[in-house]
User: Fold Nudix hydrolase domain-containing protein from Actinokineospora cianjurensis.
Amino acid sequence: MHELPEELVLPDGFVSPELPGPPAVPRDAATVVLVRDGTTGGDHAAGLEVFLLRRVLGMAFAGGMTVFPGGGVDKRDADASTRWHGEPPAWWADRFGCDESLARALVCAAVRETFEESGVLLAGTDGTDVISDTRPFHSARQDLVDRKYSFAEFLAAHGLVLRADLLRPWANWVTPEAEPRRYDTRFFLAAVPLGQHPDGATTEAEDATWQTPTAALADWKAGARLLLPPTWVTLTELAEAASVPTAMTTPRSLAKITPKIVHDGTHHRAVLPTD
Assistant:
């Protein structure tokens, strides 16, 4: 685990005043880090690139921050009728240290939120096929955002199978206890399927782009991006990966990471248990 740099401070007003009583119970959530092997033109590889969203300033949680697609688990994400290909819920439950019902919900939420926020759909007509053109599902994407039906119903209506085998478990971050809005977020890694192009067409983001992790970190250092600790750590780790296959096959520790917020006399900073 990389130590957080002293320069990684939280913006003024981001930290809520200390509230009386016990910490809020974290809500289960899923985040998907979309990656691709980029090019600089011609056949020259630029290395691994990651898809980033800048959240709308003023949002209740992480407004103005650069993040990966993701969001909270919907109770319907645990629907056992979800058509599925890949490692079973029991495999995911073992990786994330939870029960099978929650594991199923987390994987479903990961795929659903990625589709809602980026337009990337990790699904196919069977276990060997992956959707290459998501335009026919444009209206369904908004219907999912509006919660008109569950993701299981969407898949069934279009004869699709959730491709859990396209995801890899990456990390498990929990919002600090001092915050009133808390999330127990499981991070997943996924390569963008051939032919699909994430667009960031979501009301929650004001900007979307591909960048190498190194370039994104340089933007943060220059003050052009605001990063939360999980995003900074993930980008730092991915900067060490030579390619998408390398990142997808790197063994990961999935212990829960719960930072603490401290005040250094000038700024609020997040401190990791290992710092």
